[in-house]
Amino acid sequence: MFKLNFLLYPNVQDLHISNDYSLNVLDNNEVFNLLKKDFLKKYNFKDLKTIEFSKFGILGFMIELNGKIAVSKGESQSIVDGAIEYEKLGFEVLWLDLNKDGSVKLDLLEKNEIDFIFISSYVMDTFVKTDLQKVKSLTFAKVISNSSANFDENCDIAIFDCYKLSGYTSNAVVLHNNEFDEQNLANIDALSIYLCFESLRNQTFNTSNKKLFLEELKKQFNDDIYFFVEPNSTLEYSLHFALKNIKARELIRTSALSNIHITNGEGCSLGLSKPSRIIQHMQYDETTSRNAISLSFCEEYKKEQIEKVVQILHKKYRQIRVLNEQ
Question: 97: closest CA among 293, 290, 277?
Fold first, then answer.
């Protein structure tokens, strides 16, 4: 199997869950407290909490922040949806659009006083990098960052999406520096904390495949490949491109039958019909945004394996083109 979508759809591992992680108000919860201590030490934060990583979980999280909020449109769907619900309650949200090149527009930060900003070190789907140090030079707001694919020490609050990391649960772990009240023991999802930490400790990235895949894709697809974002602007273990005159989900579905797993964004590796929201925020129309494909690399492949994968993708691409033209 060639898993080229691991940043959005992780390898689900067989995990042994000990009942020592079950929390009890009449117990000292020694095993859990040690896990919590190690998690916080690894990323240099003072405390953690868990939230449901959904629009209503994010809505509650935003209300608890108690301040003026800015949100990048390059964030996860749950965060964007939560911010929309937050606006429906009458609160103000400062939205940061995306530029044509996929980067986040930061100019509004200098013109507005905000308390918290949801902006990660990468844009979802395309994995275009965002310089959080630059963000912090433009605003005094605390930076809240989805750190599942890349942790940046410049963030003030880090969110780890348990599903993206482990393939289990819809909750997330939030690391912070006492911006929140202590979470009630009964509301702490100890399992998500354990799964996130184990996945992060075992998380691996491959940075050598990107260049080889890029060269082979250009060679095989020639004029049929193009790029919404510059390959050098994305995380070193990711590659984003587009194929002309084809819906990405068609290639995703047929490639999966050959055990080649690719994606065109959040929630789309199963070939769902929604096009990339991120590409549309970059001012591309819906039809064009359906061309988008993302690859991410956690394993090292030999040159011969990469050539084989790209040849299969190209063959399936040509077959789809022929069928669509009939």
Answer: 277
Pairing of the two strands 2-3 and 260-261? parallel
CA–CA gap between residue 289 and residue 285 (Å, rounded): 6
3-state secondary structure of 47: strand
pLDDT, position 266 = 73
Q: List, in sequence order, every beta strand (DSSP E) within 177-285.
A: 225-226, 238-243, 260-261
Q: Are 77 and 277 in contact (CB under 8 A)?
A: yes
Residue 61 φ then ψ, to 5°: -60, -45
Give residue-wise pLDDT tens across range 63-74: 999 899 999 999
Q: What is the DSSP letter of 108?
A: G
For the ranges 6-10, 137-141, 249-253, the lowest mean pLDDT is seen at 6-10
DSSP 146: E
Measured between alpha carbons, how far is 162 from 185 in angstroms, rounded to an integer?
A: 19
Topology of domain 19-202, CATH = Aspartate Aminotransferase; domain 2 (3.40.640)
User: For the residues of 291-319, what is the DSSP string, one character each?
Assistant: TEEEEE-SS---HHHHHHHHHHHHHHHHH
Amino acid, single-letter form, for residue 117: I
pLDDT given at position 12 = 74
Domain 206-325: top CATH class = alpha beta
pTM flag (> 0.85): yes
The domain segmentation of the chain, as residue ranges, is 19-202, 206-325
The CA R_g of the chain, rounded to the nearest whole Å, is 21
